[in-house]
Structures are given as C-alpha cells and as structure tokens.
C-alpha cells in the first residue's frame, strides 16, 4: 500500500527493536506543511514516533487537506475524502513503523484540529487520544457521520480567547459537545489569537506524556 500523503517521520534516536512506541500524528493548519507542527512536539521525540502529515492539496506556498466554500464551511466531498484517506494513512503508518496501535494520538491545529476531532468521532477507541488546537466539529459530522463512542478516548481541546478566525465561543461549544461524550476531556483557554502559546505547548506535552504511560 502506498500513502496518498507526503509525510515527515521522526523515530526515537535510541530505538529498542523489541519495542513498540506511542505515536503522534500532526495535522497542520491551512496553507502550512508537514514540518510545521514538529517544533511543538519535538520534546517528545525520544519516546514517541512523530509523523507530520502534509495536506495533499497545494495552497499558496503550503498545503491543505480540503478546500472551503467559505470560512468554517468545508467542501463536503473533499472533507469526506480527507477523513477516509487520513484513516487509511494512520493504518498505513501503523503497519510500516513500530507503532503501538493502543497509543495512537492525533494533534492538529485549525484545519488539522477539525480533522483530528472528526477522526476521533469516526475511529473511536482505535485512537488513544487527540489534541485539537483552535478548531471545531462541523455540524454535518455531528448529524450525518456514523459516529463511534469516544468514551475511552482522551481529548485535549484548547482555544485562543482572542481567536479572530474561530471566535472563543466555538471553543466553548466544542468542549461542551465532547463533555457529553467522554469523561476524558481536558479543555483550556489561552490568551492568544488564532495560534498557540508556550503555555499551551507545555500543557499539551505534559498531557501527552502522562496519558501515554
């Protein structure tokens, strides 16, 4: 099987050939690339496999996973295809690298956060957890997708209090949605615009280390 996505993989420098490792798949925001999120999770690189997935659609100097009709309104056919292809990629990478299938995490920003949350809802406990930075769950996903239980999935949702792309109320709505679905929700607000702070990074890293034990 070949991957439809270009990707950037970092394996622990001192890998034990007998061991399987937790993995963080990073999903970038619109117009970025597969290396964009590595710096955010680089402190985990000794103990985690880190795989950055590049969106397969060029956008300016970067890439995206799907196109938009308008802000917050994905082109449905492209979005559906991205969800299907990303799920296939997760399996592809799990087969190819020494990944522990019980410790698979998605970490996404903006468009990547939207896809991370959607994949949690479609894959359920085939994922150990997700980190969703400044995103939302599309209404059509909630209403029309075949959703699996996320009761055993760890979910870290964060949002910028001054987010000028997705207002902070969207963060609150997203957290309220997941609070009904899983007891394993962590929700944090940070005094940022549509971006992530060092405090946000620190909290995510600590959360991932603890959850993957």
Automatic annotation (TrEMBL):
<keyword id="KW-0378">Hydrolase</keyword>
<dbReference type="InterPro" id="IPR003140">
    <property type="entry name" value="PLipase/COase/thioEstase"/>
</dbReference>
<dbReference type="InterPro" id="IPR029058">
    <property type="entry name" value="AB_hydrolase_fold"/>
</dbReference>
<feature type="domain" description="Phospholipase/carboxylesterase/thioesterase">
    <location>
        <begin position="20"/>
        <end position="206"/>
    </location>
</feature>
<dbReference type="GO" id="GO:0016787">
    <property type="term" value="F:hydrolase activity"/>
</dbReference>
<dbReference type="Pfam" id="PF02230">
    <property type="entry name" value="Abhydrolase_2"/>
</dbReference>
<comment type="similarity">
    <text>Belongs to the AB hydrolase superfamily. AB hydrolase 2 family.</text>
</comment>
<dbReference type="InterPro" id="IPR050565">
    <property type="entry name" value="LYPA1-2/EST-like"/>
</dbReference>
<protein>
    <submittedName>
        <fullName>Esterase</fullName>
    </submittedName>
</protein>
